[in-house]
Amino acid sequence: xxxxxxxxxxxxxxxxxxxxxxxxxxxxxxxxxxxxxxxxxxxxxxxxxxxxxxxxxxxxxxxxxxxxxxxxxxxxxxxxxxxxxxxxxxxxxxxxxxxxxxxxxxxxxxxxxxxxxxxxxxxxxxxxxxxxxxxxxxxxxxxxxxxxxxxxxxxxxxxxxxxxxxxxxxxxxxxxxxxxxxxxxxxxxxxxxxxxxxxxxxxxxxxxxxxxxxxxxxxxxxxxxxxxxxxxxxxxxxxxxxxxxxxxxxxxxxxxxxxxxxxxxxxxxxxxxxxxxxxxxxxxxxxxxxxxxxxxxxxxxxxxxxxxxxxxxxxxxxxxxxxxxxxxxxxxxxxxxxxxxxxxxxxxxxxxxxxxxxxxxxxxxxxxxxxxxxxxxxxxxxxxxxxxxxxxxxxxxxxxxxxxxxxxxxxxxxxxxxxxxxxxxxxxxxxxxxxxxxxxxxxxxxxxxxxxxx
Length: 454
Known about the structure:
alpha+beta, Beta Polymerase, domain 2, 24 helices
């Protein structure tokens, strides 16, 4: 299946308003983001005379691609000249705004890194900051929502004190103690700067099905310098796996940018990544399907994954009694057809291109209740949904987990649920088309998540 066929019939909905982008526009965007920029991008643009540039730029913004798209297109004089002046101005403005924002983010990270260095606390920089500085080698190209740093669990309280000294405050509606017990990071916000820092001690929730060894991340961490300050980053193999994990955690509803990041990582470290090591870690972390599918779409969009890499990872992904006879010459297409259900593959692609917004996910537990099953199982699931553990109730209603008042909120919880779901139930009973589609999409995304860890 080629890129033209893959992009057809995808309507891309934005978070604030419906944003429909034609298949031709999506194809042009993906070709324009390839490095080096492909001649196909100019050819496609010549056939997009009715291109709605405002919608395309909004779509690129939603996916966090506008600065890189501007850089790519602006570097090609012929392609840049073919873009209307008004669209050129929008591209440039958004690129400059992101550059200004990132300057502020890097300034704050340097301040924090210096404080951590003085306190003798090691920290690993995750995601955007490292990618912008080292992988893209241009701080303006990679939009960042926040700063993500990983510290040892026993250093969290001391780092919190440092953050508070820099003007940051804990900013989650959940209770801090609940986050420490049930989550993997604490969010801190600097109100004046409108800047968030996520303080990680792990890279996933304790309940996740991927047995990630955080100690392994620390033992193989590398260092790099930023504004004269030495700070840690993940090894090349862990960097790639971490980004695949991030994609899986969100059911592939992450947009195109994470795959653009993977493509940049592969270009930057193509001759340094130990693929045997990637395979071994992926198997230990139960991520072989996640890695295989993530790299499959990276190659589909940007064509930068070497065939031997896909073939090697495919063997790991498709290893099962049914496919045990597949040999080492298996192709990427064989990998997809052999094990990945066509509906799972299409669900993942749709999740990516629409940032998951085609399925405003209904609760999986609600769907299980709605769709039937034994009455005893329905009752059990309903009670678990209503009678949450005290520490979770405390986090939802901003109470101390040790307060007797917490138990007065269980009737409030029942009322909240009846307020939340009756409209959806009525719509399902009336066979409302939009609600039925949401329900179907929810089931498909759940099937994708389950397939990834089977």
